[in-house]
Design brief:
The chain is about 35% helix and about 25% strand. With about 325 residues, it is of the alpha/beta class. It folds into two domains: about 5-170, Peroxisomal Thiolase, Chain A, domain 1 (3-Layer(aba) Sandwich), CATH 3.40.47; about 180-330, 3-Layer(aba) Sandwich (Peroxisomal Thiolase, Chain A, domain 1), CATH 3.40.47.10. The structure holds oxa(dethia)-CoA. Oxa(dethia)-CoA binds near residues 116, 222, 260 and 263.
């Protein structure tokens, strides 16, 4: 057991200005507002400008988190960016963000890919590195420009995703029992093909033909992913509660990955926790992958849904198929 505790000192988020509504989408592919709303709960999503890269979304989110924490970029010695849409395949998005923010060169900066579970994985990684005593202040960002990897001709996926960013500043805590109490991470590698980008990696580099077939875009077997999302998120939530001897009704707010309102409702029913205890913003942003939980966490904090002493449960699921949960006492 670590001797040090880690706390969230500040949060921030950012979503690009352009709103893409279901009505507008239904002029682009054969879909309808009614279908999207009833199947997913999504009403609109944000889309980054063509010249806005993930780092451009991550920077304002990070600035807000630093301001909230009362810190400056000079205080950060660890930057982890959870993303599947880095500005470039190499170098890491974290290095672009480091440069734009002016984080010192002695800081460790890297990306982490656990898809939609990325923020919970990055939070766990940052906390473990802080608890080691080798780092003092971490900036953890979840950011995605999913509009750059969506197949805009595939109605089964393009209606679901959006762009955005969320960030948290983490430091060592002084009050025992306050901060990150624990995490439970997992991965179901058998499911790699259920949600993936088939081409453009080392297994099958892109060719002119594969690009014409849009195989460098997201492909998802929605129904199978839906069932596994409910199963894995329920398991991740139950396990962590059990590990810490906490009943579900002691959780003030669950911040689940925002992929589909029906998934969140299923978890609410399995955990026998009313929907009022779940933070939901999937209606306004769609699924923003690694950005979804930190964006929701920041909105929850700024709208007074989290108070000192509260217990918050983060629960995530994504391509991999990765999943995870984190328990935080404020
Ligand atoms: O972040 C990672 C985790 N991702 C997720 O958790 C996503 C999980 N999956 C889902 O959220 C849901 O499976 C979807 C929202 C993707 C789909 O909902 P569904 O209730 O599973 O629908 P479906 O795939 O069974 O499709 C039902 C019908 C099909 O037509 P037929 O075959 O019944 O005639 C689809 O072709 O709806 C059709 N359809 C559409 N119709 C209008 C699929 N996409 C659309 C669309 N508009 N956009």
């Amino acid at each position: 057991m670590p001797t040090r505790s880690t706390v969230i000192l500040g949060t921030g988020s950012y979503a690009p200005a352009r709103v893409l509504t279901n009505a507008e989408l239904s002029t682009m592919v054969d879909t309808s507002d009614e279908w999207i709303r009833t199947r997913s709960g999504i009403r609109e999503r944000r889309i980054a400008a063509p010249d806005e890269a993930s780092s451009d979304l991550g920077v304002p989110a990070a600035r807000r988190a630093l301001e909230d924490a009362g810190l400056t970029p000079a205080d950060i010695d660890l930057l982890i960016v959870a993303t599947v849409t880095p500005d470039t395949p190499m170098p890491a998005c974290a290095c672009y963000i480091q440069h734009k923010l002016g984080i010192p060169t002695h800081a460790a900066c890297f990306d982490l890919n656990a898809a939609c579970s990325g923020f919970v994985y990055a939070l766990d990684t940052a906390c473990a590195m802080l608890e080691s005593g080798r780092y003092r202040k971490a900036l953890v960002i979840g950011v995605e420009k999913l509009s750059s990897i969506v197949d805009w001709q595939d109605r089964t996926t393009c209606v679901l995703f959006g762009d955005g960013a969320g960030a948290a500043v983490i430091g060592l805590g002084e009050t025992p029992g306050v901060g990150l109490l624990g995490t439970r991470l997992g991965s179901f590698g058998e499911g790699t093909d259920l949600l993936c980008i088939p081409r453009g990696g080392s297994r099958a580099p892109s060719t002119a033909e594969s690009i014409a077939a849009r195989d460098h875009c997201i492909r998802m077997k929605g129904k199978e992913v839906f069932k596994l999302a409910v199963r894995c998120m329920d398991e991740a939530a139950r396990d962590i509660l059990e590990q810490h001897g906490i009943r579900a009704d002691q959780i003030s707010l669950v911040i689940p990955h925002q992929a589909n309102l029906r998934i969140i409702e299923a978890i609410s029913s399995y955990l026998e926790l009313p929907m009022e205890r779940f933070f939901v913003n999937v209606d306004r942003y769609g699924n923003t992958s690694a950005a979804s939980i930190p964006l929701a966490l920041d909105e929850a904090r700024r709208t007074g849904r989290i108070k000192p002493g509260d217990l918050t449960l983060l629960v995530a699921f994504g391509a991999g198929l990765t999943y995870g949960s984190a328990l935080i006492r404020w």
